[in-house]
Each structure stands twice: as structure tokens, then as C-alpha cells.
């Protein structure tokens, strides 16, 4: 086909041009290293050039473009553009031969339709097999042709095997997604989307778009991506670098609060210093209160209670002189400064400089000419007076003094917390020293709140928050402080809320995030989950009590099987063996408490598998919250998480060391590189990657099958393909084949167990197997 040959020739041209760009970038790295300039710019330039050289070097033979636009009318009349992941220059100074997908003209590729062709006569989509151009598909928009969802190339791409970490979706961004991706930097957005509607993908592509369109404005502040846990971050970590953006910080809310998961939690560590006389239920209660928005005001009062009215004049000696600021003037300085509502530290600085200014004026009246050295001397002289009325403090100290002193707490919480609530969070005795305090994850939000009152934290130009429905009001405030002068993209699904403080509606959550006016948009087309699974999930959705729209699936393929087993573990092993006879990644998901036996059964059956988090098999788990979600009171938060807070040591509590859930924070739970620890068979760094059967199967199947006999294992024994996943870790991940074991246990394992089940059931890309002994807590479409 001559046209295909022409396109292949263009591919060659692009690859040559890319190689020339690579040579140029390498040369620039060398030259750039010699360029004298300020250190900051030199470093940035060097980083940029190096990463460009690296990217270009890594994939000179990858697909250089995925689309083509032939314009017939409008500003681009008569022009043809190839659209790709990155811009490719032709001749130096000449027209680019491939346009970046984020450029303004590329927008038409995603948005044009037969109804509104945006000047385009022909839109061409290219199909690639590995790095070989295998074909293309045209839409003659000028003739009213518009394939929409019937595009074979789009469908193949969406249903393509997902091998490895999450991929970019630049070639197939859908119009409703593109609208969000290209929203301006000044606009804050909230995307409510059912599972698999592409919220995460949209958020990451928006980050890449903003960095392209507003590079200068984002130069200093940058973009921050917040995800629910490090496993999830590992899963998404490759998307932005693949889009050429390596400078985006990706982390968790816990991490920005300084929470880290300590090694060997659950054996000899405990919650806060003062919790030892509480029952576990009370510890839960304490965390819930600490995450409540009312704590913000309690802490503000506690901090500013340190500011005192002066009750003596300032008198300082200066050689033979004695300068004096009358008590009344001193008071006025303190009162005026308080009213100005700056941060505590700025207020303190301001009192100091105002006192120094008053002294200077007196000196000038006496005919002296104070210089800078004199001013510094006076500032040192007034420091002891300042220490009394506006003392320097550390955030941890403020929190410790509040929780360790019931009368201070009663004062600060008056009218805000009930006496019962105050008792729940109070420590029975003050800690002997800050170093002895075993801070909890819930304390971290309090410390961060006070730190934000002392000094504003570093702000970002744009913050993307994924799984935002799970954040507590106080966690939201921590995010808000970091985006006070920037905008946010809030991604979430009220139906997937699993924390005790999960948002029930977006307006309240957005208010806590400091962006009450953010536009709320719903995404309703699912790109992950097959339609019969979506139908089941929609039924469950109707009992979750949240006001969110139902989803419809883009996918017509897929399989759903439910089997009532007479032996749960035998049936599970059989289901996994059956899954292994297909291509693709497999997850076996069960209630956290079931994992140790499940793992043992799979091992006994000789099925190699990866556990994303290690388990303490000695105790069945009873944990009920997402790992690293700061949950209250299942001890994951109050006892099992420790935080960095000025190097506080943890103290052991013999009371809780025997009865805590053992799943929560295993020995290797939080490796520094964001990959998952390997426990048994070590095959993959991620729990994720789907690897679906790519063949399109129109009209997938939903069946109920009787208990299965052992399927002959045509697999490789599971090497690298089977992940055993506790239900609390499934959020945000996807697998080709998912085996859900005993949904009733997942549903009753925690307060929002049905929401958890909703998350678990929506992880499958191609096939979902539900294995159960007990009645299903959901109805399955026939
Ligand atoms: N336009 C698209 N083209 C191709 N793939 C897409 C598109 N949109 C989404 N996907 C794919 O669908 C899957 C689900 O997307 P994503 O994880 O972003 O959804 P989500 O809404 O964040 O899901 P969840 O709520 O379950 O975390 C991913 O594999 C993603 O790459």
C-alpha cells in the first residue's frame, strides 16, 4: 500500500531527526556544563538537557507519532501535522516535523468530530506493532465520517495488554478527558469518577500539560502529585517520565506530613506516649478526633495562648543610657501585631523589629545616629522580653503541651470539643521529654497544622491529589497549605471512600482543601472494567449511599464468573490455575485476615506468587483500613505508624504488643524506592501490571459456574504473574485477571466494607472470578 509506505518513510525521517536531536542534546550537555551563569539556572539547564538526552537516547526507535491532522479550513488551512509524544524538529529553525500532543494545534486531534470538525478534513490514527507502523485508520471529518468509539485503533489501545507499570494514554485521550487535561493553570478541578474512568490518567496528563503550557509560571513552585500509598506511586511512576516530565514530585500525604512506616511495627511499638491506659477502641476514637477539622481551631488557640500581654516595661541598658519602652506601648505593639494575623513566626519577628524601632527613635531624639550594629545589639537586649510575651516554639512542643496537659486542653478546646472528646485525646501524663514521645500518624496532622501556623510551608504551583475522598479534613488542610497560592486537581470517587472520615460530598471536601469553588466534573465511561463487571458494580453502588452517577463500560470484552465453592481454598487454587492458563497478570484479593492462609495454600499448591507486603503470620490480621492511609485506631495509625517528628523515639507498650493486627506495617513495608518488598517468590517489583489478552471479544460473558475441578496447569507455575493482595491494598491498581475470595469477609471486615468490596471488584481488566462459600453481599447480573 503506497500510502502506508509513505508513512513509513516519514517514520524513518522522524527517527533520523530524533537522532540529530539526540546528538544536539548531548552536545548541549557538554556545552551547558561550561556555560557560566547562576548556579540554579545552570543546574536546571543541565538537568533538563541530560533528561532530554536520556529520553531521546532511550527511545529513538519508538513510535515517533500516533496521529495526523490534515486541515482544510481555518488558520491551519492546507497544513498537515503529525502528532506525537514529543516535538521533533526538522531542520534547525524550520517547522517541526512532529508536534507535541500538548501544543494548541494538537487539541483538535482529541476534540474534532464530524459535527464540529474544527477545520480538519482528515484525522488519521496510526497503529503500531512494537515499533513498526502497522497501519492507520482515517476519519474524513469533512465528509461526516467520525468513528468515535468504533475506532478499532482506539479500542485496541484501550484493551491492549497492560504490561508493567501504568502507561500514558496520549494516543487515545477521550474528548471528556481532554477537556480536563487542558484546563488552565488557574482553574482548580475536582474529578469525580467511577473506577477505571481514567481519573489517575487524567491527573497525570494534566500535570504534563500544565508543565508544557505554563512552564515558566511553574518553574519555581512546581507540580506535586499525591497518591494514596507508595505501591500506587510505584505503579504510576513511569507515566510522567514517559511524557518527558521528570521534575514532578510524587509522594503521599503521609510523607509530606513526615509519617513513615517503621520496621517491625506491631511487635514492640505503640502509639502516643500517653495512650497506654486507653483501650484500643479509645485509641481509634482519639485518632478520629485528631483528624477532625475542629482541631485546627483548638491548635490555633493552643499556640496563641503562648502570646501574653506584657506586664512590665522594656528596659535595656546601652552604655550610660537606659532605654525604656513603657508597658502600655509594649502592649500596643503586641496587640497590633496579633491583629495583623500573619504567621506566628512572622509576628514574633515583627514584635522584635518594632521594639527595636521604638528604641531607635528614642536614640535619635537624643541626637544619636544608630547604625546596624547598634540595632542588632538592641534586638539582643529586647530578646528576653520577647521570650516572655511571644516565645519561640516548636510545633511538636505545642502539640505535646496540649495533649499532655488537661487544663491547657480544656482551655483550647472549650466550646469545640466535648469533655469526652478531650479525655479521648488527652495523654494521662505529660511526656518526660519530647524525645520520649511515640508520635502517631494522627499526631502528625496536628504537628503539621501547628507548623503551618508557625510558618507557611513550601507552596506548589499545582497539586494533584488522587483518591482524595479518603483524606480527613485535617489532611486536606495540610494539602491546602501547600497549594494556597496555586491550583489543584482533586481526583476521587465518593463510592470508593474507605477511611472512617471519607468524604460524603465534594463541596465539603473542597472547602477543607481550600478550593471551595473548584469545578466538579463527573467521568462516567470506564476504560478498565468489562461491562458485565461494571453492571455488578453499579448494583453495589446503589446501596453505598453516595450521590455519584453510574458508570458505563467502554469495553465489550471480558468475563465474570462466580462460583460457590464447597472448599474455599481448593476452589481458589483452581481459579488461579485456570487464570494461569491465560495470558496476563493475576491478583488474588481477599480480606486482610485471610491472607496468611491464602498464601500458605498457594505455596502448598506450588503456585509462585508475590505478596506486596509482608505478613506476620503469627496473628491473623484484623486491620480494617488502607495501609498508609493514616487510619485511626486499627492501630495502623495510632500505634503502628510512627512519624518523624524531631527524632522522637518510640516507646514500647506491653499492653498492645500482643493484640494488635499484624498485617499493618511489616518489616519491609516501605522500601525507599517505592517498590514493594518481596516476601516469598520475588518476581516483580510491582503488584500491578495487567497484561490482558489483547484480542477484542465482542459481547463478553457473564456466567455462574459450579465448583471447578483442577484445571490442568498450562502455566509457568505463576512466575511473576500472581500477586496476593489484601483488600486494603487494592485501591488504584489493576490486573488482567482478578480472583476475589469470599466477598462477605471483605464486606464485614471494616465499617465501610461494602465500599472496600466495590474497590476490589473493580480491579479486573479482562476476567473477574468470585470464589465464595458464604452468601454474596452483592447481586450478580445473570
Ligand atoms: N483514554 C484512554 N485511553 C486508553 N486507556 C485509558 C484511557 N483512559 C483510561 N485508560 C486506562 O484505563 C485504566 C484505568 O484508568 P485509571 O487508573 O486512570 O482510572 P481511575 O479512574 O483512576 O480508576 P480507580 O478509581 O479505580 O483508581 C488505566 O489502565 C488507564 O490507562
Question: How many DSSP helices?
Answer: 27
Helix percent band: 25-40%
Q: How many strand segments?
A: 24
Instruction: Determine and state the CATH class of the largest domain.
Output: Alpha Beta
Q: What would you say the CATH architecture of the largest domain is? A: 3-Layer(aba) Sandwich
Counted up, domains total 4
Strand percentage, roughly? 15-25%
Using only C-alpha atoms, the radius of gyration works out to 30 Å
Q: Terminal Cα separation, in Å?
A: 46 Å
| Structural class by sheet pairing and helices | alpha/beta
Classify the fold: give the CATH topology of the largest domain.
Answer: Rossmann fold
On the 0 to 100 scale, the average pLDDT is: 81
| Poorly predicted tracts of residues | 261-282, 613-716
Spatial ordering of strands, largest sheet: 3-4-2-1-5-6
Question: What is the name of the CATH superfamily of the largest domain?
Answer: P-loop containing nucleotide triphosphate hydrolases
User: Main beta sheet: strand number and arrangement?
Assistant: 6 strands, mixed
Bound small molecules, which ones?
adenosine-5'-triphosphate
Tell me, briefly, the overall form.
globular
Amino acid at each position: 500500500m503506497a500510502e502506508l509506505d509513505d508513512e513509513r518513510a516519514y517514520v524513518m525521517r522522524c527517527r533520523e531527526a530524533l537522532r540529530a536531536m539526540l546528538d544536539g542534546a548531548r552536545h548541549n550537555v557538554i556545552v551547558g556544563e561550561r556555560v557560566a551563569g547562576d548556579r540554579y539556572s545552570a543546574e536546571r539547564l543541565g538537568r533538563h538537557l541530560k533528561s532530554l538526552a536520556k529520553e531521546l537516547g532511550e527511545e529513538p526507535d519508538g513510535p515517533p507519532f500516533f496521529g495526523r491532522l490534515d486541515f482544510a479550513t481555518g488558520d491551519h488551512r492546507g497544513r498537515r501535522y503529525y502528532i506525537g509524544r514529543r516535538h521533533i524538529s526538522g531542520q534547525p529553525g524550520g517547522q517541526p516535523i512532529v508536534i507535541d500532543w500538548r501544543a494548541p494545534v494538537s487539541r483538535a486531534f482529541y476534540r474534532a468530530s464530524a459535527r464540529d470538525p474544527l477545520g480538519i478534513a482528515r484525522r488519521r490514527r496510526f497503529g503500531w506493532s512494537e515499533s513498526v507502523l502497522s497501519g492507520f485508520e482515517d476519519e474524513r471529518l469533512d465528509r461526516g465520517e467520525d468513528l468515535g468509539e468504533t475506532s478499532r485503533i482506539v479500542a485496541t489501545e484501550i484493551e491492549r495488554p497492560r504490561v508493567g507499570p501504568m502507561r500514558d494514554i496520549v494516543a487515545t485521550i477521550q474528548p471528556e478527558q481532554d477537556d480536563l487535561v487542558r484546563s488552565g493553570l488557574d482553574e482548580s478541578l475536582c474529578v469525580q469518577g467511577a473506577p477505571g474512568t481514567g481519573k489517575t490518567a487524567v491527573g497525570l496528563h494534566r500535570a504534563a500539560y500544565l508543565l508544557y503550557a505554563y512552564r515558566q509560571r511553574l518553574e519555581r513552585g512546581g507540580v506535586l502529585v499525591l497518591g494514596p500509598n507508595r505501591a500506587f506511586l510505584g505503579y504510576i511512576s513511569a507515566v510522567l517520565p514517559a511524557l518527558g516530565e521528570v521534575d514532578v514530585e510524587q509522594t503521599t500525604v503521609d510523607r509530606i506530613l513526615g509519617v513513615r512506616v517503621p520496621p517491625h511495627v506491631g511487635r514492640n511499638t505503640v502509639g502516643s506516649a500517653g495512650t497506654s491506659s486507653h483501650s484500643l477502641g479509645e485509641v481509634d476514637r482519639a485518632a478520629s478526633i485528631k483528624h477532625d477539622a475542629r482541631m485546627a481551631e483548638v491548635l490555633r488557640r493552643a499556640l496563641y495562648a503562648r502570646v501574653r500581654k506584657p506586664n512590665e516595661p522594656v528596659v535595656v541598658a546601652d552604655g550610660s543610657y537606659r532605654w525604656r519602652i513603657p508597658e502600655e506601648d509594649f502592649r500596643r505593639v503586641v496587640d497590633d501585631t496579633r491583629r495583623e494575623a500573619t504567621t506566628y513566626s512572622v509576628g514574633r519577628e515583627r514584635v522584635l523589629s518594632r521594639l527595636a524601632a521604638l528604641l531607635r527613635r528614642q536614640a535619635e531624639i537624643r541626637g544619636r545616629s544608630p547604625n546596624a550594629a547598634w540595632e542588632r545589639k538592641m534586638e539582643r537586649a529586647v530578646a528576653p522580653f520577647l521570650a516572655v510575651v511571644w516565645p519561640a516554639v516548636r510545633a511538636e512542643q505545642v502539640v505535646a503541651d496540649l495533649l499532655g496537659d488537661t487544663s491547657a486542653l480544656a482551655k483550647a478546646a472549650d466550646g469545640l470539643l466535648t469533655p469526652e472528646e478531650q479525655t479521648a485525646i488527652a495523654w494521662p501524663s505529660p511526656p518526660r521529654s519530647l524525645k520520649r514521645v511515640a508520635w502517631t500518624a494522627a499526631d502528625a496532622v496536628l504537628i503539621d497544622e501547628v507548623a503551618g501556623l508557625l510558618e507557611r510551608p513550601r507552596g506548589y504551583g499545582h497539586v494533584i491529589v488522587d483518591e482524595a475522598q479518603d483524606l480527613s479534613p485535617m489532611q486536606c488542610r495540610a494539602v491546602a497549605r501547600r497549594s494556597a497560592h496555586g491550583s489543584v486537581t482533586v481526583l476521587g470517587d465518593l463510592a470508593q471512600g474507605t477511611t472512617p472520615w471519607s468524604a460524603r460530598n465534594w463541596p465539603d471536601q473542597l472547602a477543607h482543601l481550600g478550593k471551595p469553588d473548584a469545578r466538579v466534573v463527573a467521568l462516567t465511561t470506564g476504560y478498565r472494567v468489562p461491562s458485565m463487571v461494571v453492571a455488578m458494580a453499579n448494583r453495589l453502588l446503589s446501596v453505598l449511599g453516595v450521590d455519584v452517577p453510574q458508570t458505563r463500560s467502554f469495553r465489550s470484552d471480558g468475563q465474570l464468573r462466580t462460583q460457590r465453592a464447597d472448599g474455599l481454598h481448593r476452589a481458589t487454587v483452581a481459579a488461579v490455575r485456570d487464570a494461569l492458563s491465560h495470558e496476563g497478570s493475576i491478583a488474588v484479593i481477599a480480606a486482610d485476615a485471610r491472607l496468611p492462609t491464602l498464601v500458605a495454600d498457594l505455596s502448598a499448591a506450588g503456585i509462585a506468587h508475590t505478596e506486596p507486603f509482608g505478613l506476620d503470620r503469627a496473628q491473623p490480621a484484623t486491620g480494617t483500613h488502607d495501609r498508609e492511609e493514616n487510619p485511626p485506631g486499627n492501630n495502623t495509625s495510632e500505634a503502628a505508624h510512627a512519624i518523624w517528628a524531631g527524632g522522637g523515639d518510640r516507646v514500647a507498650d506491653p499492653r498492645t504488643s500482643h493484640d494488635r493486627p499484624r498485617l499493618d506495617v511489616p518489616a519491609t513495608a516501605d522500601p525507599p524506592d517505592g517498590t514493594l518488598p518481596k516476601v516469598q517468590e520475588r518476581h516483580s517489583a510491582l503488584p500491578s501490571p495487567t497484561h490482558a489478552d489483547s484480542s477484542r471479544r465482542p459481547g463478553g460473558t457473564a456466567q455462574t459456574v459450579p465448583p471447578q475441578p483442577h484445571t490442568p496447569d498450562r502455566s509457568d507455575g505463576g512466575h511473576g504473574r500472581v500477586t496476593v493482595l489484601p483488600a486494603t491494598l487494592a485501591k488504584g491498581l489493576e490486573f488482567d485477571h482478578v480472583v476475589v475470595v469470599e466477598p462477605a469477609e471483605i464486606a464485614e471486615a471494616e465499617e465501610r466494607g461494602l465500599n472496600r468490596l466495590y474497590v476490589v471488584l473493580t480491579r479486573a481488566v479482562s476476567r473477574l472470578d468470585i470464589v465464595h462459600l458464604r452468601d454474596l453481599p452483592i447481586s450478580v447480573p445473570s
